[in-house]
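Tokens for chain A. Residues wanted.
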């Protein structure tokens, strides 16, 4: 397999893994959403139908994300020796820096475009008094995005600087 393609796969693996891990951790903080996601329970009646539909879409998206992540992890492991860590670092740095930059310039626009790209409907446009918006305001997502992609920027710098270090021997 092409070394450039493997580096791109590695970048996608790092991004999806970190996002999925943060999602799994954050969702456990909300008992309603934890039970909905982990134990397939219904959301309580105080959630609106629109919120329930949106969370069902989020659940499907999360399952797809986990499946894709597992596939990417398999490919990364299989072709580990072909990974160009310097290229991976630069690709990760460029992508993550752009996400941070767009988030800092106009997170509202970034957030809206993300939802338009990912979701097939407008069910994510919840009223400001909804439980989900009250629990997870825009500032929550902005801070989480900056933390995740800030960590990825640091990882990228590490990969570029220490490109010759074989961190994992004999995967």
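Reply:
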């Amino acid at each position: 397999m092409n070394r450039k393609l493997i580096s791109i796969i590695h970048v996608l693996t790092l991004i999806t893994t970190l996002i999925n891990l943060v999602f799994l951790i954050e969702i456990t903080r909300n008992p309603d959403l934890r039970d909905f996601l982990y134990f397939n329970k219904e959301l309580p009646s105080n959630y609106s139908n629109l919120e329930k539909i949106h969370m069902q879409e989020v659940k499907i998206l999360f399952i797809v994300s986990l499946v894709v992540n597992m596939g990417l992890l398999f490919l990364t492991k299989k072709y580990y020796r072909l990974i160009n860590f310097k290229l991976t670092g630069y690709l990760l740095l460029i992508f993550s820096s752009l996400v941070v930059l767009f988030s800092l310039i106009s997170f509202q626009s970034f957030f809206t475009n993300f939802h338009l790209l990912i979701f097939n409907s407008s069910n994510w446009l919840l009223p400001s008094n909804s439980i989900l918006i009250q629990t997870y305001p825009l500032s929550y997502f902005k801070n989480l995005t900056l933390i995740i992609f800030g960590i990825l920027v640091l990882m990228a710098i590490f990969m570029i600087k220490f490109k010759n270090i074989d961190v994992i021997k004999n995967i």
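The mean pLDDT is 91. Residues 85-118 form the longest helix (34 residues).
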